[in-house]
Amino acid sequence: MNLQRERCSICTSWRCTARARLWLNFLAFYYSTGDKPYWEDGLGGQTDSWDGYLTWIRHWVVSAGLGPYRDTLGAADAEATHTWLLDRRTRLVYVSERGNPVARQLLREQWPSEAWPNISPEEALDLMQHRIAQQSQHLPSQEQIMAFYHQHLQDVADLSDWLEKYWPMKVSGRGQ
């Protein structure tokens, strides 16, 4: 894996490029109070789309597969006690207690040692301040925000369509 020490234009991480993240096997997901789903990969993470997350997690196949754990993965008014781990290669999902040391180790060990930053707290603060200043210089226009919003709505609708195409709800008594 070629990890370049530069800012990633997709995930904004200064540790690696997004290309390195494509090779990762495991991602962890959970939902936090305030309608914020999170993902993490052992090196970093961020919040993500609440409606996309809920479209996925509430689909009947996913929800049924999570069984009793579906209520432990967090909600707008309840902090998650568990997280689900997606194995991107096998497409299996595992549920673990949040903060479980074995799950954390699994996520961390998928990264080579050179991926971990070797910088001082002062350097990390400088990088964070630089990123904040950079973001404030490039504020999107109203048109860009609306275009992003409409694309996001289309992406969530596409996810829902994809889920129904591959895992349609079979309702007995309706001739399906």
Give short descriptive properties of this protein.
176 residues, alpha+beta, 6 helices
Overview of the structural elements:
- With 176 residues, this protein is of the alpha+beta class.
- It has a domain at 25-110 and 140-166.
- The chain contains six helices and five strands; from the N terminus they run H-E-E-E-H-H-E-E-H-H-H.
- The chain has helices at residues 18-21, 50-57, 60-66, 101-109, 121-137, 142-166, and strands spanning 26-32, 36-40, 45-47, 82-87, 92-97.
- A five-stranded antiparallel beta sheet has the order 3-2-1-4-5, with helices on one face.
- Helix 2 runs parallel beside helix 6.
- The longest helix is centred in the last third of the chain and has 25 residues, at 142-166.
- The termini are far apart.
- Mean pLDDT is 79; it is low at 1-19.
Helices, strands, pairings?
Blueprint: H1 18-21, E1 26-32, E2 36-40, E3 45-47, H2 50-57, H3 60-66, E4 82-87, E5 92-97, H4 101-109, H5 121-137, H6 142-166
Antiparallel strand pairs: 1-2, 1-4, 2-3, 4-5
Helix pairs in contact: 2-6
Percent helix:
25-40%
Q: What is the strand content?
A: 15-25%
- Biggest beta-sheet profile: 5 strands, antiparallel
State the total count of DSSP E strands: 5
Radius of gyration: 19 Å
Model regions low in confidence, pLDDT < 50 over at least 5 residues: 1-19
What is the molecular shape?
Answer: globular
**Mean model confidence by pLDDT:** 79
Kindly name the structural category: alpha+beta
Order of helices and strands: HEEEHHEEHHH
Distance between the termini: 47 Å
Cross-sheet strand order for the largest sheet: 3-2-1-4-5
SS field, number of helical segments: 6
